[in-house]
Amino acid sequence: MQADSEGLIRRSGVERRTAVGVHPAGPPLQLERTCCERRSCDDNEDGKKKSDTFHEKTSGEICSNSKTSPSYTADVLAFAKRHWLTFAAGVLAAAFVASGRVSPGAIARALDVDLLLVLFALLTAIEILRGSGYVDLAVAKTLAQFHSTRGLALVLVLLSGVLASLITNDVALFIVIPFTIVAGTFADFDVEHAVILEIVACNLIGCLTPLGNPQNLLIFHRSGWRAEHFIAVMTPFVIWSIAGLLAALFLLGRSRPLRTIEVDLPPRKIATAAGGAICFVLVLLEIARVVNAWPAAIAALIAGAIFLRTRLFAIDYSIVPLFFFAFIVVEGIRTMNIQRVGSNLYVTSIALSQVISNVPAAILLSPVASGRWRELLYGVNAGGCGTIIASLANLLGWRIYVRGWNRDPRFFWRLTL
Predict the structure, then answer these.
(1) What is the DSSP letter of 337?
(2) Would you list the DSSP string of 4-39?
(3) How many other CB atoms sit within 10 Å of the CB of residue 290?
(4) What residue ranges do the domains of the chain occupy?
(5) Residue 138's beta-bridge partner residues?
(6) Whose CA is closest to 128, among 317, 4, 319, 309?
(7) What distance in Å separates the CA atoms of residue 154 and residue 162, rounded to the nearest whole number?
(8) 301 membership: H or E segment, kind and range
(9) Distances from the Cα of 267 to the Cαs of 49, 193, 312, in angstroms?
């Protein structure tokens, strides 16, 4: 579920600006530098030199360049590192199938096709909505109502949780963290602390609904609960989480006036917003068990081809094959007496999340959670606030922050501790 955070706040087409805060204006902040002109100049200066160099090469040298370049190898290794969990699940699933522990018939029974389809539809619908420009506009308009650092931090943290409960935690982080970084350049407050609380809010407030994160969607499908019952179960957990986050906000220091923040927003596209909204409504209807997942998946595929085009292939769909392989793995370990491990499901799910992340923990423990879904839900969502690998949102938030703020590695340890 990772998309380029730089695409959220950028110059594109007709430039539109919005101001966050109403205090004396500071200089406009250019969040993304365009390098096209510099590249063009470099190309003009170096074009003849590159052409001459090419013609001086022998055929042997040209053939040697056809070999796999170090950069290509590095890209492959980076891709494998980024999706190591999916690859590991695939290898383990293949081992179970090859050993005969999981038969083809067992695979068919274990797979939750509706869950895989709705995951695909949700990821695509959210990307379409992001591309419409209206999500960025809504966030900017909300932030414009606050004029102090503490008020801004409060709305950023709570907005992170609310957005996460509606459009998944990773998308919420892609939207909110860049705005926090912008605010940090115009106000004297602890940006690291604010971003950490935003990540925690995505984990603990976003879990209110089945849409908040992948483990919630899995448990929602496996438990057979209705959406309103799921929300009722998670409400006490979320209320306590909000209380803790509000207390932590006072650690940010005294409140200070906030100067004007100018942010470049992408142009709004009404047709794209309408297409994304239709897909998202179909996902909600599947969550409400009004329709199955096929209409949402088909609509998302068509809308993605129309509005995203080649960007459809840039969406991180790795969570879908991860779940596919994980269903096979869970089927393979049914005979491994996992019930002993799950005697205290809440504690076990928290501990397991620290090691393998909360999504795999939810998948592995779901076979023994019948009648104990509340324990598993609370455990995997609380467990996401431990180590940096305990939740995919932790890793994603860290990467967005480091890339945008360029600060020292202590953020890693603050997030973990």
Answers:
(1) -
(2) -GGGTS---SS-EEEEE--EEE-PPP--S---HHHH
(3) 10
(4) 5-46+86-416
(5) none
(6) 309
(7) 12
(8) helix 294-303
(9) 40, 31, 19
Beta-strand relationship, 259-265 and 23-25 = parallel
Residue reference for tokens 């007496």? 337
Alpha helices in 58-168 (DSSP H): 59-65, 70-82, 84-98, 104-110, 113-132, 134-143, 149-167
Rounded CA-CA distance 213/27 in Å is: 38
Tokens representing 58 are: 């022998």
Please choose, from the candidates 213, 181, 211, the residue with its C-alpha nearest in 3D space to the C-alpha of residue 392: 213
- What is the spatial distance between Cα 125 and Cα 107, in angstroms, rounded to a whole number? 28
Q: What is the DSSP string of 170-217?
A: HHHHHHHHHHHHHHHHHS-S-HHHHHHHHHHHHHHTGGGSTTSSHHHH
pLDDT tens per residue, the chain (417 residues)? 434 433 433 333 333 334 333 333 343 333 333 344 444 444 444 444 444 443 444 444 444 444 445 677 777 777 777 777 788 888 988 998 888 888 888 888 888 888 899 889 988 998 898 889 887 787 777 777 777 878 888 888 999 999 999 888 888 888 888 778 777 766 666 788 888 899 999 999 999 999 999 899 999 999 999 999 999 999 999 999 999 999 888 776 677 777 666 667 788 999 999 999 999 999 989 888 888 899 999 999 999 999 998 888 888 888 888 888 888 887 887 656 555 555 689 999 999 899 888 988 898 888 888 889 999 999 999 999 888 888 888 887 887 777 666 555 566 666 665
| pTM, full prediction | 0.68
Kind plus residue range of the DSSP H or E element containing 326: helix 319-332
H/E stretch holding 396 reads helix 392-405
- Give me the torsion for CA of 184, 188, 193, 194, rounded to 10°: -50
Written as one letter, the residue type at 299 is: A
User: What residues pair up with 264 in beta bridges, in sequence order?
Assistant: 17
Contacts with 406 (C-beta within 8 Å, 6 or more apart), sequence order: none
Query: Residues 242-248: contacts with CB within 8 Å, 24+ apart?
Result: 242/158, 242/161, 242/205, 244/204, 245/157, 245/158, 245/161, 245/197, 245/200, 245/201, 245/204, 245/205, 246/154, 248/197
Give the span between the Cα atoms of 133 and 97, in whole angstroms.
45
Yes or no: say if 129 and 167 are a contact pair by the CB < 8 Å rule: yes
